Amino acid sequence: MGVIDKSKVPVKTGSIYPEPYASQMAGRSSLRLGDAGGLTQFGVNEVILAPGAVSSLRHWHHREDEFVMVLRGECTLVQDEGETVMRPGDCAAFPAGVANGHHFVNRTDREARFLVVGSRMNPERVTYSDVDLEVELKDGKATFTRKDGTPYQGERT
Fold this sequence. Notes:
Strand order of the largest sheet: 1-2-3-10-5-8
Helix content: under 10%
Order of helices and strands: EEHEEEEEEEEEEE
Strand content: 35-45%
Shape: globular
Number of strands: 13
Largest sheet: 6 strands, antiparallel
Radius of gyration: 15 Å
């Protein structure tokens, strides 16, 4: 395929998360650059965070490696060790199987963008550090459970 015209790549908004978590992703969008280029072995996404937005629930992958590089603006990486402000050119890596939940928060008044590169393991399991939630991704389908494996049917009251 070669060169990807980013102006023709659809902007993806929303989340695969169930509520109440899906609505917490307001202000987050992405360009699926790897998909636009026909890549199948790893994903490449440009994530766009509006002021105040978060990239995801804090999470870690059981089988997938992730690499992030900030492209524009400033965002705060939140992980088990604490918080790190990241600016254009700063990079972070998250090896598969390391139970160190992470996500990015835009605490500024300007848009932030970062590139995420990750392997595409099938199946894959993701654990969310701060909530009782996991997801299994298999053959393009997401199945959410509680951490004990019981089906996720919304928040308990």
